[in-house]
Amino acid sequence: MPTIYDTPPIEVQQDLELLKQDLDQKIPAKQLDRNLLIATWNIRVFWKPHP
């Protein structure tokens, strides 16, 4: 059974990298005392089996 300390499967690593790139493009930069950035997502979606 996988644990939180295991290296994620390559597909998950690739999905996370794509997500990071997408978020970097779409989310505005934090500006101290000007904005508050709040985000959430369900990380379980990354662990679903790929077809």
Task: Quickly describe the structure.
With 51 residues, the chain is an all-alpha fold.
SSE inventory with pairings:
Elements: H1 10-26
Share in helix: 25-40%
Q: What shape does the CA trace take?
A: elongated
Rg, alpha carbons = 14 Å
The succession of helices and strands, N to C, reads H
DSSP helical segment count: 1
Structural class: mainly alpha
Structure description:
Helices cover 33% and strands 0% of the residues. The chain has 51 residues and is mostly helical. The longest helix is centred in the middle third of the chain and has 17 residues, at 10-26. It is elongated and about 45 Å long. The two termini are 20 Å apart.
Comma- or semicolon-separated keywords:
1 helix, elongated, 33% helix, 51 residues, mainly alpha
